[in-house]
């Protein structure tokens, strides 16, 4: 019998976690308690987006993302409080509330620019003939919110 070659894999633990780019931290208030979620790194972002984009049911997508989201809570006491709130049978936190929080975090992390846009020298110069057709701008349904105070 011939011996097959063993494929070897190595995690990237040698890389500094500080050099890895992350999304900005986001603070939300849940039942009057301010909770700060650390911005996910590239790997966490990938898993989160896979969970959300791969599902046709948003409740299932959020449910599959809960563990990852809980792991991004900055303060251990806040994480324990949220976990207990989710598991409290006498006064459970609704999945709708959790869904709203998760969707807000995703919006803050993935639809907001993380860096200031560079100032340009103006609009690009035209390269061809102007169109005679009028252009219509689509109204944006994206809401803007002020950053939460810490």
The largest beta-sheet arranges its strands as 1-2
Q: Give average pLDDT, whole number.
A: 76
Q: What class, by secondary structure content?
A: mainly alpha
**Principal-axis shape:** globular
The SSE string, one letter per element, is EEHHHH
How many beta strands in the DSSP annotation? 2
Poorly predicted parts? 114-122, 130-150
Radius of gyration: 22 Å
Distance between the termini: 65 Å
Biggest sheet layout: 2 strands, antiparallel
Percent range for helical residues? 25-40%
Strand content: 5-15%
- Treating each run of at least 4 consecutive H or I residues as one helix, how many helices? 4
Structural notes for this entry:
It is a single chain. With 150 residues, the chain is mostly helical. The protein has a domain at 20-110. It is built from 4 helices and 2 strands. The protein has helices at residues 42-53, 58-71, 76-87, 95-110; strands at 26-30, 33-37. It has a two-stranded antiparallel sheet. The relative contact order is 0.15. Mean pLDDT is 76; it is low at 114-122 and 130-150.
Task: Give me a quick take on this structure.
With 150 residues, the protein is mainly α. It is built from four helices and two strands, in the order ββαααα.
Q: Could you give the topology of this structure?
A:
Elements: E1 26-30, E2 33-37, H1 42-53, H2 58-71, H3 76-87, H4 95-110
Antiparallel strand pairs: 1-2
Helix pairs in contact: 1-2, 2-4
Features:
disordered C terminus, mainly alpha, 150 residues, 36% helix
């Amino acid at each position: 019998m011939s011996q097959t070659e063993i494929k070897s894999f190595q995690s990237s633990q040698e890389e500094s976690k500080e050099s890895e780019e992350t999304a900005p931290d986001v603070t939300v208030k849940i039942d009057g308690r301010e909770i700060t979620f650390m911005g996910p790194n590239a790997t966490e972002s990938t898993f989160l987006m896979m969970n959300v984009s791969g599902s046709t049911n948003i409740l299932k997508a959020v449910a599959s993302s809960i563990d990852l989201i809980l792991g991004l809570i900055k303060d251990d006491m806040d994480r324990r409080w949220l976990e207990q709130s989710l598991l409290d049978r006498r006064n459970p936190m609704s999945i709708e509330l959790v869904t709203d929080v998760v969707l807000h975090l995703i919006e803050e992390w993935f639809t907001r620019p993380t860096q200031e846009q560079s100032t340009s020298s103006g609009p690009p110069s035209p390269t061809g003939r102007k169109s005679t057709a009028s252009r219509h701008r689509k109204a944006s349904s994206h809401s803007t919110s002020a950053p939460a105070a810490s």
